[in-house]
Design a protein that fits this description.
Layout: H1 3-19, E1 32-33, E2 41-54, E3 63-74, E4 81-87, H2 100-110, E5 115-119, H3 135-141, H4 148-155, H5 161-186, E6 193-203, H6 205-215, E7 244-250, H7 255-263, E8 278-284, H8 293-306, E9 310-315, E10 331-332, E11 335-336, H9 337-348, E12 352-353
Helix pairs in contact: 4-5, 5-6
Length: 354
């Protein structure tokens, strides 16, 4: 397009903007986001992104339940939005997508131009009870929920049925988070999502799941179970693929990758390569941490050895003390978690900031 034609189109665009809601158009395909809260946030709650097998306290056989997410997005006319999918914590035993801090984070990002998805996934709460069952009985009870080899590994070193269930739920969380991300890709046009700008993040168990989602291959935590054993897999947009551009990690670890490698006899360093997502980590150093600070240092060391860009923010409480687990109010150089992660994403994804 020559200069005159470009100016003509630009003038038409400005005129239209005078009479309609602000239009936001892509610049060379790069999304535009705002430095301040600029848009009313629209919210769609409890969207079913897939089904998954489940148990309750009295069930002898598994049954399908809907898996849901909440979607937050700006009330604007942008046709080119980045997306941020967030995975809540809860030790794989519970947790909710509507945790107040997550809602606050969702509004922070959506009001600046992102589509923000907060997902629920299956936890121990969806695994019923296995108290008093033998290993063989548990394998039969959980057929289709997790691979036999994963459940067998869960028994190694477990001191209680609860620990077996927690380890089993780690697999379910990963399967579900991948299904949620595939749903976002499948529905990208409906929400004007640019799938070249995908961020995945989480806190605690959600951060553990985030790392495994970003680093693992597309087929991992997906193809270990067949549709004949788990018919709900057919609801999970298996034909879709994704590329995670960035990961945001709050007080997590790479534990799940360690388990996956142990179950399938893989070398952990073979799981990482230069094409893996860039990584922002926020982790405190307080003594009460469920996931030690050393976990973040280990990930940073792996990333540095491969040459993938990463940042580790050592979190402090507002009074200057080392931050502990779940320190949503933590700060670094006067910035909170939302602003720290926002700055990282804008800079590293080279988003257009207005």
């Amino acid at each position: 397009m020559n200069k005159v034609a470009y100016l003509t189109v630009f003038a038409i665009f400005l005129c239209a903007a005078c009479n309609e809601e602000e239009q936001i158009l892509p610049d060379n395909g790069i999304p535009i986001v705002k430095s301040e809260s600029s848009y009313t946030v629209l919210k769609e709650e409890n969207i079913t992104y897939a089904d998954g097998l489940s148990h309750n306290a009295t069930s002898n056989s598994s049954f399908a339940i809907p898996l849901k997410l909440d979607l937050y997005y700006p009330d604007n006319n942008s046709s080119n939005r980045p997306v941020f999918m967030f995975i809540h914590g809860g030790g794989f035993r519970g947790g909710i997508k509507t945790k107040p801090e997550i809602i606050e984070m969702a509004n922070y990002y959506a009001s600046r131009g992102w589509v923000f998805a907060s997902i629920d996934y299956r936890t121990v709460e969806e695994l019923g009870t296995i108290q008093g069952m033998t290993q063989a009985e548990v394998l039969s009870h959980y057929r289709g929920l997790a691979p036999e080899e994963w459940i067998e590994n869960s028994f190694e070193g477990a001191e209680s049925a609860d620990e077996v269930q927690q380890a089993t739920a780690m697999y379910l969380a990963q399967r579900d988070s991948k299904a949620a991300l595939r749903w976002l890709v499948a529905n990208a046009d409906s929400y004007n999502i640019n799938t070249g700008y995908i961020t995945v993040g989480g806190a605690s168990a959600g951060a553990i799941t985030t790392i495994a989602l970003g680093i693992s291959n597309q087929e991992d935590f997906r193809d270990e179970i067949t549709i004949s054993d788990d018919p709900t897999l057919s609801t999970t947009n298996l034909n879709e693929s994704y590329v995670v551009r960035s990961m945001v990690y709050f007080w997590g670890s790479n534990l799940k990758l360690d388990v996956f490698e142990a179950v399938y006899n893989l070398n952990q360093y073979d799981r990482y390569d230069v094409n893996d997502p860039e990584l922002f980590m926020g982790h405190g150093t307080a003594e009460d941490l469920v996931t030690p600070y050393e976990e973040a240092l280990e990930l940073q060391s792996i990333y540095n050895s491969i040459g993938i860009y990463n940042e580790l923010a050592t979190l402090l409480l507002p009074n200057g003390d080392p931050a502990g687990h779940g320190a949503w109010n933590a700060i670094v150089d006067g910035k909170g978690l939302f602003e720290l992660s926002f700055d990282f994403l804008v800079d590293r994804q080279q988003l257009i900031l207005e």
